[in-house]
Design a protein that fits this description.
With 256 residues, this protein is α+β, with helices and mostly antiparallel strands. It has a single domain, classed as Deoxyribonuclease I, Chain A (4-Layer Sandwich). The chain is 25% helix and 26% strand. The chain is built from six helices and 14 strands. It has a six-stranded mixed β-sheet. The termini are close together. 42% of the residues are buried.
DNA sequence: ATGCCGGGTCCTACCCGA
């Protein structure tokens, strides 16, 4: 099973990029983040033509997630369980495929709106850990993949690419990521590449791509039985060299 | 040392991303 994630920074700007990548890579499931459109505006038709069914959780202007799958699936949740009912930010989608739970997330960045914005990020991570624990308690095989907006360790960003006080590297963010590892989840990309940079994002500014000043913030966390089936987990750096690219590249995880 | 780039929107100056 091939499961991918990609923060596309507007699906309307990246529609042909996604089409080409699906044709070349043929994942079973692709989670998208930052689609930046309302649900009816999502361009489903070109993906249907490639054999993919879409489920979209959109909102105006910001955020927005979706999943494209060429295998049958059931939609389980369209929002992260446990969040306040009036939270309208489109950041979570959960489906079931062949008895496996697959979750796509766009975790809050946490740098805007001061400490309130950072508190929102931490609360969101607390709810995510609760969801993961509930699935572990049920012995459900599951994958959580997407844009986590966390560099788990200092190996996960180029020196100077971020301030030490950035919400992506603050100890409170890292502690919450690490807690999910301690719960028994496997960071798939790090399991396959134990050391060194494996970036998934490069800023548009200051020649970050040309200087390889990247971040590793797009991840796939695997439940214990799925971790035993891990074959590969890699960012597709080639996408960052395409014309008008997203600032993130796809990350593809393969399970036997 | 964030706002250099590149999305978005009350259409155009301003908000947001990481």
């Amino acid at each position: 099973m091939k499961i991918a994630t990609w923060n596309v920074n507007s699906i309307r700007q990246r529609e042909t990029h996604v089409q080409r990548w699906l044709e070349n890579t043929q994942p079973d499931v692709l989670f998208l983040q930052e689609i930046k459109c309302e649900t009816p505006a999502f361009p489903s038709l070109p993906f249907h033509g490639l054999g993919y069914t879409a489920e979209v959780v959109g909102q105006k202007s910001y955020n927005g997630v979706a999943v494209l799958a060429r295998v049958p699936f059931n939609v389980v949740h369209r929002a992260l369980p446990g969040l306040p009912a009036d939270d309208a930010q489109a950041r979570y989608i959960e489906i079931e495929v062949e008895g496996i739970t697959l979750i796509g997330i766009y975790l809050p960045n946490g740098n805007s709106r001061g400490e309130d914005g950072f508190a929102y990020k931490l609360a969101w991570m607390d709810r995510l850990a609760e969801r993961a624990q509930a699935l572990l308690d049920d012995d459900r095989p599951f994958v959580i993949t997407g844009d986590f907006n966390v560099c788990p360790t200092d190996e996960d960003y180029a020196p100077g690419a971020l301030s030490p006080t950035d919400a992506l590297v603050r100890p409170e963010s890292r502690a919450r990521f690490r807690r999910m590892i301690w719960m028994g989840l496997t960071d798939a990309v790090r399991a396959v590449h134990p050391h060194g940079p494996v970036y998934t994002f490069w800023d548009y500014q200051a020649g970050a791509w040309q200087r390889d000043m990247g971040l590793r913030i797009d991840h796939a966390l695997l439940s214990p039985t799925l971790a035993e089936r891990l074959v590969s987990a890699d960012p597709d750096r080639n996408e960052r060299d395409q014309p008008q690219p997203s600032d993130h590249v796809p990350v593809l995880t393969t399970l036997s």
